Amino acid sequence: MDPCPFVRLTVGNLALKIPVASKPARSVVHPSSSPCFCKIKLKNFTLQTAVVPYIPPENNQFPEGQAQTLAATFHLSKSDLERLVAKSIFAGKLCLKISIYTGRRGTTCGVNSGRLLGKVSVPLDLAGTESRACVFHNGWISVGKEANKGSSAQFHLNVKAEPDPRFVFQFDGEPECSPQVFQIQGNIRQPVFTCKFSFRNTGDRNQRSRSLQSEPSSSRSWLTSFGSERERPGKERKGWSITVHDLSGSPVAAASMVTPFVASPGSDRVSRSNPGSWLILRPGDGTWKPWGRLEAWRERGSSDGLGYRFELIPDTSGCMSAAGIVLAESTLSSHKGGNFLIDLGTNYNGRSTPGNSNSPLCSPRSSGDFGYGLWPYCTYRGFVMSARVEGEGKCSKPSVQVSVPHVNCTEDAAAFVALAAAIDLSMDACRLFSQRLRKELCQDRDLLG
């Protein structure tokens, strides 16, 4: 499999120091007592925001030994690079624009509550960054009205671009329609996987879908160990399963709904307190082994989106009590869809779709007190994968990007494809129970509504 060229543009190591005025103005919010933030904008990409740490003015250097703290990340495909480079020729030099504010983020009566301190513009030359890393700026910049008088505020930042090649996969249809999956490279589409959507036999809680019936019975225990297969009263969606096969027909990954998606009492939605869940499985030692667990629910409030949490299940030689390592936790817009993203190298997961509100994630978190000790054994770093998911009622053919360092074999790629199918199917599983599902998702006619 040949990857597609991508570039990862990062902004990090932010800091701000402001000289102490002899007579400080009462109307000015000082960063030592109030947080600072900045807005980061790259042409044609969604605006990103980040907190800016304050450093006392007597410090002449950025603190030694401080780990690289990323504030924003932009993921650039080859077409993005071509468009940005072309625009820079006819519309002047391409620049990354940063506005620095003192005070808290947010708005009051439609007016921004932060006070603009100054703006910074960093010129970018992205030509050739698909094959080589480039640092555009690393150090302090003077900002504010006194920038040319030697008494201005100082803003520290690091801006760099580095190659981030990825494998790109595209479902040829909706996951519940058992589609083929193609690998995309430029204009070339090559089939690499097939998917089989099915229902587990609801009459036998330990029975897997027909495509997995040949597996040893010992593997079936994972279903009951990691999810709830018990009968639940009221409305529920259960038993969905999707298996990914290679071109020889061998199963190489699977996603199995192990906890039904159930409407909370007195409601027609799946609540955060009682989410449905999927187990992502990989073959190993003649049986299926759990690789990850995806939980999903329907958010309340104005967002009314699909909430999700994905955690990696450590390989602890069958220890069922090991804590999972949370790699992603966020919300997708139920109306517009968005990008499911696993990115372990930034405080902000760059959004490509308005309404896809990704929560900060600078390092994996454990669901158990001892989980951090497992992290050194996890090989996932930086950008891991993304999957584009459409909103409710729209035809969704998920596209999946996986970073090259995280794919060592066919099973690696298949696991991410199965995860993408699970998050896409969760959009349907979390639809309000007052709405009807398409017939492919309903084993019984009375579950259509």
UniProtKB/TrEMBL annotation:
Residues 209-221 have a biased composition (Low complexity). Residues 203-239 are annotated as: Disordered. InterPro entries: DUF1005. Residues 228-239 have a biased composition (Basic and acidic residues). It holds the Pfam family DUF1005. Signal peptide: none annotated. This is Formin-like protein 18.
